[in-house]
Specification:
CBS-domain; 2 domains; five-stranded parallel sheet; four-stranded mixed sheet
């Protein structure tokens, strides 16, 4: 975009006389969407370029990180450093112990973060950042393998690394071809590829993921039935021979709108709900009170293991149109009860 001369005698931005100084003419709003398309196209092409260059070097990087007895220490400067922080966070949250070390801070007292057994993952598009290059010597002195992500395969960083991952791009998405845009997108995408490849090689599953994400909405979605269910004396329980007045008392006292019917071994044989009681009273009138639990219960109730996800419990309730699930072990013995109200607080709906 060419500058246009400023015709005012006083600049509105600095109040100084600046007649004839250049002033950038702002593009119209109608070109913004076209700019967005261009940026997204260039960054998509940058990622597509990574696909074409995936080879045994990526495999070696995965093996190095997988076999690391310590931590993956990710380092970078500037925008590469910001990308590095995200890569370190993704690695750590998907089963690969990782931390971020700012290269400049490392050279001013934080080198103690590096320990024998770690692997250094260094990110620098130019491969010539002074702080990154200076960090290589102490890393090598500790015997740390170095994996480099760089766009310059002949740079000092590339030449000193054990494995080099090429993140070069044809052009940046910046119209000046200066601001790191496509190159940082490529680095981030390749970092994600490493993290997920490691996740799958480790057999890292939902259980491990839930253990590392106990907070926030994600943590709530990954809670187990065992975390939410009612236990012990809070669970309404009667035996098959229990008279109906006692059944009603137990249901009212525990306030879950149901009761489990169990044998002496606590093996579940049935369930009685508020709905069962209403239908029974409509059909049998006063005679309903003369029945026992075994005569009023619904046999073969829907159950769920304590290890199942809370989201699965909610889905099962919705499918069966019920509000409670009995929680049982592998032998069918009662362990607890999970109620629809217990799931509301998780905002799973």
């Amino acid at each position: 975009m060419a500058p246009t001369p400023c015709r005012s005698t006083a600049c509105p931005h600095c109040s100084n006389a600046c007649s004839g100084w250049p002033r950038w003419s702002a593009p119209g709003a109608d070109v913004s969407r076209e700019t967005a398309r261009r940026v997204l196209r260039i960054e998509a092409e940058a990622i597509a370029g990574l696909l074409e260059r995936l080879d045994e070097r990526f495999d070696r990087a995965v093996e190095l990180l997988l076999g690391c007895p310590g931590r993956v220490v990710v380092t970078g400067m500037g925008k590469s450093g910001l990308i590095g922080r995200k890569i370190a966070a993704t690695l750590a949250s998907t089963g690969t112990p990782a931390i971020f070390l700012h290269a400049a801070e490392a050279l001013h007292g934080d080198l103690g973060v590096l320990l024998r057994g770690d692997v250094l993952l260094a990110i620098s598009y130019s491969g010539e950042s002074e702080e990154i290059v200076a960090l290589l010597e102490p890393a090598k002195r500790l015997g740390l393998p170095v994996v480099a992500m760089t766009g310059n395969l002949k740079s000092p960083l590339a030449m000193a690394s054990d494995v080099v991952l090429d993140i070069s791009v044809r052009e940046e998405a910046c119209s000046l071809n200066l601001a790191p845009t496509a190159s940082t997108t490529a680095a981030l995408a390749l970092g994600d590829a490493l993290a997920i490849a490691l996740l799958e090689r480790r057999g890292f599953g939902i259980e491990q993921f839930a253990a590392l994400h106990p907070g926030g909405r994600l943590g709530k979605k990954l809670k187990r039935v065992a975390d939410l269910m009612h236990r012990g004396d809070d669970v309404p329980v009667v035996h098959p021979h229990t008279p109906m007045p006692d059944v009603i008392y137990e249901m009212s006292r525990k306030g879950l709108g149901m009761t489990a019917v169990v044998e002496d071994s606590r093996r579940v044989v049935g369930i009685i709900t508020d709905g069962d009681l209403r239908r029974l009273m409509q059909k049998r009138k006063k005679e309903a009170l003369e029945l026992t639990a075994s005569e009023a219960m619904t046999r073969h109730p829907v159950t769920i293991p304590a290890t199942e996800l809370a989201a699965a419990a909610l889905r099962l309730m919705e499918e069966r149109k019920i509000t409670s699930l009995l929680v049982t072990d592998e032998e069918g013995r009662l362990e607890g009860v999970v109620h629809l109200h217990d799931l509301w607080t998780l905002q799973l709906f």
